[in-house]
Every structure is written in C-alpha cells, then in structure tokens.
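Slide 14.
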Amino acid sequence: MQKLGDEKLINEQIQGFIPGRNAFKFILLTIALSTIIIGWANLRTGDKSEKVQRKGVDVIIALDVSKSMLAKDIQPDRLTRAKQLIMRMTDKMQNDRIALIIFAGKAYLQVPLTIDYSTVKMMLQNVSPDMVPTQGTVIGDAIDMAMETFTKNERKYKSLIIISDGEDHDEMALEKTRQAADAGVIVHTIGIGSPQGATLYDPVTKSLKLDENGSPVVSKLNEDELRSLATAGHGTYSLLQNTDDVADKLTNNLESMEQKSLGSVIYTDFTSYFQYFLFAGFIALIIEWLLPGVKKKKNGSIA
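Slide 15: predicted structure.
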C-alpha cells in the first residue's frame, strides 16, 4: 500500500475499511468462545443445604498386581477381572470411605481413604504390574500398609478386602491378618484364577515364561491360603466367577457391619448460570458476524 501512494489516502478509499476492525472482530470471537466454554462448564451455586446423616465404614481394597495376575485362566485375564469387580463395588457403594492399595513384592498406597469413587476408578484404569518393580505376592506388606492407612483410634468400622491369586511368598501374612482382626479390621479375601492354573506369557521374550529348568511356569490359584486369611480376619472368602454376585456379597457384608455416623452438609438445591454465558457468547458471535470487514476479490485485490 505504501508503494501505491499515500497510505492514509488509500486506506480511506478501501470499501468498509475501519482501523482496528479486524482486531476487534478477533476479540469478539475470543470472547464468544470463552463464554461458551464457561457456560458449558455449568457454573452453579448452592442455594439450599441440609445436614444429612451419613453412615458407613472405612474400606481398603488391596489389589494384587504381580505378573501372575496376567494369567488368562479367566477371561480376559485375572487383573482385568479384578478391576471390573472393584468398579462394580464402587458403583454399589454410597457412603463408605474407600482406599486403594496395590501390591506385589511391595505394597503402595494409590488412593487414600475418600468418598470420591471417581478418583478410585480413574486410578484403577492405569494399574498394571509395571507399577511395582519388586515382583512376588507379599500380602503381609499390603496388610501393614492398610493398618497404617486406617484410623488408629478406632477398633471397628474397618474392613480390608484382599484380591489376589494367593501365590503368597510371605509366611507372616496369616499372623498379620490375626493382628489386624485384633485391631477391629474385618478381612475379606477374593480368589482370582483357577486351581488348575495357567501358563504365563513373558512380554520381554514374547513367549511362555520358563523356570530355571526350562519348563513353562504355571500360576495356580491358592484357595487354601486365601480361605485361611479370611478365617483369621473374621471375614469371608469368595471365588471370583460372577462379578456381580461377588460385588453384591461384599457390599452386603459391608452394610451388615456396625457403621459410624458421619455428619455432612450437602447442597440439595442449585442455581445454574450457564444460560447467561451462552447468551453472551451468542450475542458476541452475532455482533462479529454483522460487522463488515475488508473483503478480497478472488484475484487477491482489495474490494
């Protein structure tokens, strides 16, 4: 434009030219997009609240993530079925606080006691044997971790659910279960797998996992140990076959326990403000559309 002549004179002759118009239209589009996103988030405030008496227990789920849980004697594999069971349980639970521990050769707390079941589900999606570098099935470490997580000044309202194939390499597991029971913790166990067992696939060699003698490693469900742990913990043992049945059994057992009262303020009536943001975004879009701008012809010249 400077090469054509006086820039100010040429600008005045361009049809529809207003200094800063394109920048203003861009700002309007930005405002419209921002308000629509905020409106979609559905901001709201609680207008009415009431004190609701909630009763529940503290539940810690200890999930075995050792590589033997990848055996496919139940489909699609032991670990996936265990995750499905926990998902079903959280869908059926309402007021109980829940925590998640994963263990193999060591135990790790993934989710502390919470009533936010969606957090447990989210964390559960990423659980895999790779999260625990030390392999094995040391149930005793999971029990120790659970006892550290539970409220120590209470001798009831507590339950530990151990989900494993029972291939335990910890001789102290039974004694630690008895100690947990003495501290008021009800211990339930869930068996994953089959007594006949299944061979394990080694993802590194992409073949069957072999022992030191070159024979295929077979992982079998150890029901006897899991039953012994449940008996010592004054709980129940269940073999996972039908996921819904086991989830119902566990939640019923939790509901039958003596429960503690938890006072909580819950909002029961809300006012939403999404319509105001959506309306503001719509108005900004209309204004941007109505404002004329500099048009270009197909040959690239300014009209």
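Speaker note: The mean pLDDT is 84.
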